[in-house]
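Re: [ENG-882] Designed sequences occasionally contain unexpected residues at chain ends

Forwarding the minimal case from QA. Structure tokens:
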């Protein structure tokens, strides 16, 4: 809360009142930001009683470097949504020259590379998001070599296919503490065993393959199926289908 004190319609002093001590970081950062402005007074109201909501335990993604493995339609959508949060975006794609989607890639991706560059890019990443298709070449692509290239404490998120991740490598890097956390919406086998040892780690979050269940995604899938049926009916060739698993 802020208030102004002054005469003749002008504010000589502006006071910022911090109500309670439950969010110390916000108080500290605000004071640091305003330290060169003596006409801003910072005060703590210890008389304000607030309910204890607990201390924040998460981290902001602001300023983080995010590596998107497989920059297709989903990867591009993720990049668009993350860009406003002040992140640096790295991405891999097999053939960037074949990218036909209308999009300012230079303004969306800070550094591009092919599959052969994934280990180099991994060294810069704080967070890795896998969006690749699953095929014979990509099975287990997130392996010991890749995870070892990551900075200690980096996070891994898989929203594509479970078998992109080498289970043993992921487990070992979680156990050693090299991997800071794992978030997966897809598993190595589905339905996933609720007693799987990987779930014992407190820094593992799993959702039951529901990230893609939206009206938009279902309407998009319906259009693909419908268009293929129409082309098949007309005897026309169709290229919209890719068999991945």
């Amino acid at each position: 809360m802020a208030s102004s004190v002054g005469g003749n319609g002008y504010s000589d002093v502006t006071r910022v009142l911090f109500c309670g001590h439950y969010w110390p970081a916000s108080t500290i950062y605000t004071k640091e930001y305003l330290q060169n402005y003596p006409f801003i007074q910072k005060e703590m109201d210890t008389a304000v009683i607030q309910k204890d909501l607990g201390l924040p335990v998460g981290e902001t993604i602001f300023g983080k470097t995010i590596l998107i493995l497989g920059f297709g339609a989903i990867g591009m959508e993720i990049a668009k949504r993350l860009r406003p949060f002040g992140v640096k975006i790295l991405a891999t794609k097999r053939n960037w020259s074949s990218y036909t989607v209308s999009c300012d890639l230079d303004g969306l991706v800070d550094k591009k590379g092919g599959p052969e560059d994934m280990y180099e890019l991994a060294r810069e990443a704080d967070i890795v998001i896998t969006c690749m298709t699953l095929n014979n070449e990509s099975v287990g692509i997130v392996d010991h070599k890749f995870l070892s290239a990551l900075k200690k404490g980096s996070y891994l998120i898989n929203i594509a296919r479970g078998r992109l991740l080498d289970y043993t490598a992921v487990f070992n890097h979680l156990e050693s503490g090299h991997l800071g956390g794992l978030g997966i919406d897809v598993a190595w086998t589905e339905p996933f065993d609720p007693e799987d040892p990987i779930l014992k780690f407190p820094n593992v979050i799993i959702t039951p393959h529901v990230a893609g269940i939206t009206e938009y995604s279902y309407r998009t899938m319906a259009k693909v199926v419908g268009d293929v049926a129409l082309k098949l009916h007309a005897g026309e060739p169709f290229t919209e289908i890719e068999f991945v698993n």
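QA comment: On inspection the terminal residues look reasonable. The chain is about 25% helix and 20% strand. Proposing we downgrade this to a documentation issue.
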